[in-house]
Amino acid sequence: MKARVYVQLKPGVLDPEASVVSKTLGTMGFDTLSKLDMGKFFDIELDVDSTEKAEATLKEMCEKLLSNTVIENYKIEIQS
Amino acid sequence: MKARVYVQLKPGVLDPEASVVSKTLGTMGFDTLSKLDMGKFFDIELDVDSTEKAEATLKEMCEKLLSNTVIENYKIEIQS
């Protein structure tokens, strides 16, 4: 079973890296840029036979390792 | 215009971070994990009036700053 997990800072949490990328694009002449946020994703393959098991496993992975739930949100998308 | 840009190492390029995350999940007992890849994404808003302009701008951003095209692939998804 394949899935993609998105992890992103919660709204309101400062993201200095996104800030720098955004400012740099501005100084490079990209003046139509109005907003930029960053995040990471994980493409994960699991040897499980049901979507339910995959979701439960991925949720546990997110809560325990893949995301810092104090400052980050995660979103799980089962692909096949 | 909103878009999401995905940046990921090309297949075959070593990713030590993904490797560590994968091994750590294994030692934590997630024995159904068969593959894990990582990447990053950018949620970008542009003040442009056409999808074509947005795509051209985003492509230029990717080629010039957001990705290292020697070792990374990028994918642009216009959302609205």
Please provide a written account of the structure.
2 copies of one chain form a homodimer. The first copy, chain A, is of the alpha+beta class and 80 residues long. Chain A has one domain: Phosphoribosylformylglycinamidine synthase subunit PurS (Mth169, Chain: A, 2-Layer Sandwich), CATH 3.30.1280. Helices cover 35% and strands 36% of the residues of chain A. The first copy, chain A, has a 3-stranded antiparallel sheet. The model of chain A has no long low-confidence stretch (mean pLDDT 97). The A-B interface holds A 6, 21, 24-25, 28, 30, 32-48, 53, 57, 60-61, 64-66 and B 6, 18, 21, 24-25, 28, 30, 32-48, 53, 57, 60-61, 64-66.
Secondary structure topology:
The structure is a homodimer of 80-residue chains.
Chain A (H helix, E strand, L loop, with lengths): L1 E8 L6 H12 L5 E14 L4 H16 L5 E7 L2
Largest interface: A-B, 30 and 31 residues
Residue fraction in strands of chain A: 35-45%
Number of strands of chain A: 3
Shape of chain A: elongated
Number of domain modules of chain A: 1
How does CATH name the architecture of chain A?
2-Layer Sandwich
Average per-residue pLDDT of chain A, rounded, comes to 97
Strand order of the largest sheet of chain A: 2-1-3
User: Uncertain segments of chain A of ≥5 residues (pLDDT<50)?
Assistant: none
Q: Mind describing the biggest β-sheet of chain A?
A: 3 strands, antiparallel
